[in-house]
């Protein structure tokens, strides 16, 4: 579900204009792309329904109120309105990426592990990226990252992809991404052929 927190009435402020977005915790995008190509093997995954895994504090939920219709067929008539509040971080609010990142960082600090620094190095919103020159290390990276998010953060890392066919077969099918070129930080990464395709828009005449 997406909350359009940038919408506003004429002459009024939107929710995104009133909410502090928090400091940026994102690693430089170009750096992640470059590091992803500098080692022989890559392993990527993303967090299922990432924002919705983080609960909003009770005192902050009024910020996400929205009006809905009890009966759509009756239209916007008196008595046909109901007010809802999000209880988890919705997509569309400018502070959501910071709240997600701050939550992950907090869990990593609370549960020290050798995988933590690897997670933080190339974490981009809900995407994790691991690189190595040792193919045998990929299995360990999969197991440790899966366990860290599941046991300590109660989040599900899924759609794992790697350019190692051996490790792809090692990963349980329910944790694998579809067997086709898939998006990697907005670009197409073909793990089978180990190629990254960046589409450059054609300017108009």
In short, what is this structure?
With about 200 residues, the chain is α+β, with helices and mostly antiparallel strands. The chain has six helices and eight strands.
How are the SSEs ordered, and which strands pair?
Elements: H1 15-18, H2 29-38, E1 41-47, E2 65-69, E3 81-85, H3 96-110, H4 116-121, E4 127-132, H5 135-152, E5 157-162, H6 165-170, E6 182-184, E7 187-190, E8 195-197
Antiparallel strand pairs: 1-4, 1-5, 2-3, 6-7, 7-8
Write structural notes for this entry.
This protein is α+β, with helices and mostly antiparallel strands. Helices cover 29% and strands 19% of the residues. It is built from 6 helices and 8 strands, in the order ααβββααβαβαβββ. It has helices at 15-18, 29-38, 96-110, 116-121, 135-152, 165-170, and strands spanning 41-47, 65-69, 81-85, 127-132, 157-162, 182-184, 187-190, 195-197. The strands form 3 sheets. A 3-stranded antiparallel β-sheet has the order 4-1-5, sandwiched between helices. It is globular. It comes from Caenorhabditis japonica. It holds the Pfam family RVT_1. Residues 1-189 form the Reverse transcriptase domain.
């Amino acid at each position: 579900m997406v909350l359009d927190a940038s919408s506003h009435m004429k002459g009024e402020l939107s929710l995104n204009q009133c909410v502090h977005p928090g400091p940026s915790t994102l690693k430089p995008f170009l750096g992640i792309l470059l590091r992803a190509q500098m080692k022989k093997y890559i392993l990527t995954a993303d967090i299922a329904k990432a924002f919705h895994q983080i609960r909003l504090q009770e005192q902050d939920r009024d910020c996400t109120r929205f009006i809905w219709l009890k009966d759509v067929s009756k239209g916007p008539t008196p008595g046909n309105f109901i007010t809802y509040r999000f209880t988890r971080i919705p997509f569309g609010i400018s502070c959501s990426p910071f709240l997600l990142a701050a939550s992950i960082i907090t869990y990593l600090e609370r549960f020290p592990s050798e995988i933590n620094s690897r997670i933080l190095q190339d974490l981009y919103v809900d995407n994790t990226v691991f690189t190595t020159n040792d193919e045998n290390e990929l299995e360990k990276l999969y197991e440790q990252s899966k366990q860290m998010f599941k046991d300590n953060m109660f989040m599900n890392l899924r759609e794992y992809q790697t350019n190692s066919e051996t490790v792809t077969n090692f990963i349980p099918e329910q944790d694998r991404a579809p067997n086709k070129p898939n998006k990697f930080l907005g670009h197409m990464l073909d793990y089978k052929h180990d190629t990254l395709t960046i589409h450059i828009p054609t300017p108009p005449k």
